[in-house]
């Protein structure tokens, strides 16, 4: 079982805390000769595989590194265009690492705001008055769980679909937020959470949830 990440979103839809707890490694590194037997295309400021899945490299995977040096979007570490570099026979053989694109800070902010809007839409679509918004979204590889407090703060956990005890974990995170953020005299409401004790206790709670599942009755 695994818990992938935690997000805290304020009542205005702003991301005030985010923790990547566990990220499955699906990177694949191969050495290629010219011509490259994969079709690459630019997409959202990065270079991705458009055709030619093989050896763990899948359509949609991004170019993460070339010859051991991290790629910066569509450019190599020394500022060269990735597609131009890989189109030059003189640069072969070349080692390329492919994998899932890592979300940038700006992308995480945008996605938190989008989920805030979806949560509100879910509430408005309900045929019953006073319904909550989205509490869980499920895919084949993860579940998104959300708990909104009476003050509008949202705690969001992304976890393995088989992970137990997430409802209790969400309430435990709320307790940690109350104890180590709200009671911190230097913390301002609705602002980013930067508190070492909050970080430490949150990580302990995530580790306990992964090992033992539920925190108590009603999980």
UniProtKB/TrEMBL annotation:
Top-rank taxon, per record: Eukaryota
Keyword Membrane among UniProt keywords = yes
Tagged with keyword Endoplasmic reticulum: yes
Q: Where in the cell is it found?
A: Endoplasmic reticulum; Golgi apparatus, cis-Golgi network; Golgi apparatus membrane; Postsynaptic cell membrane
Q: Which Gene3D superfamilies match?
A: 2.30.42.40, 3.30.450.70
Q: Which one Pfam family would you cite for this protein? A: Sybindin
Give one GO biological process term.
Answer: endoplasmic reticulum to Golgi vesicle-mediated transport
Give any Gene Ontology cellular component. Answer: endoplasmic reticulum
Q: Which UniProt keywords apply?
A: Cell membrane, Endoplasmic reticulum, ER-Golgi transport, Golgi apparatus, Membrane, Postsynaptic cell membrane, Synapse, Transport
Signal peptide bounds: none
Free-text function comment from the UniProt entry: Core component of the TRAPP complexes which has a function of guanine nucleotide exchange factor activity for Rab1 GTPase. Plays a role in vesicular transport from endoplasmic reticulum to Golgi and autophagy. May play a role in dendrite postsynaptic membrane trafficking.
Which family would the database say this protein is a member of? Answer: Belongs to the TRAPP small subunits family. TRAPPC4 subfamily.
User: Self-association or partners: how does it assemble?
Assistant: Component of the multisubunit TRAPP (transport protein particle) complex, which includes at least TRAPPC2, TRAPPC2L, TRAPPC3, TRAPPC3L, TRAPPC4, TRAPPC5, TRAPPC8, TRAPPC9, TRAPPC10, TRAPPC11 and TRAPPC12. Interacts with SDC2.
Official protein name in the record: Trafficking protein particle complex subunit
Q: Which organism is it from?
A: Smutsornis africanus
């Amino acid at each position: 079982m695994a818990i992938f990440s935690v997000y805290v979103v304020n009542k205005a839809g702003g991301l005030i805390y985010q923790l990547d707890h566990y990220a499955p490694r699906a990177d694949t590194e191969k050495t290629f000769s010219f011509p490259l037997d994969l079709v690459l295309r630019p997409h959202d400021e990065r270079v991705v595989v458009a055709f030619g899945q093989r050896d763990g490299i899948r359509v949609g995977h991004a170019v993460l590194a070339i010859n051991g040096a991290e790629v910066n979007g569509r450019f190599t570490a020394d500022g060269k265009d990735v597609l131009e570099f890989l189109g030059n026979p003189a640069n072969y053989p070349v080692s390329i690492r492919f994998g899932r694109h890592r979300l940038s800070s700006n992308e995480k902010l945008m996605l938190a705001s989008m989920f805030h809007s979806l949560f509100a839409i879910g509430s408005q679509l309900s045929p019953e008055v006073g319904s909550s918004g989205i509490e869980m979204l499920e895919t084949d590889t993860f579940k998104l769980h959300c708990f909104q407090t009476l003050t509008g703060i949202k705690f969001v956990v992304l976890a393995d679909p088989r992970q137990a005890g997430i409802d209790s974990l969400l309430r435990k995170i709320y307790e940690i937020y109350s104890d180590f953020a709200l009671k911190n005299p230097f913390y301002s409401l609705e602002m980013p959470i930067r508190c070492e004790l909050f970080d430490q206790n949150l990580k302990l709670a995530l580790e306990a949830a992964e090992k033992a599942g539920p925190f108590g009755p009603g999980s």
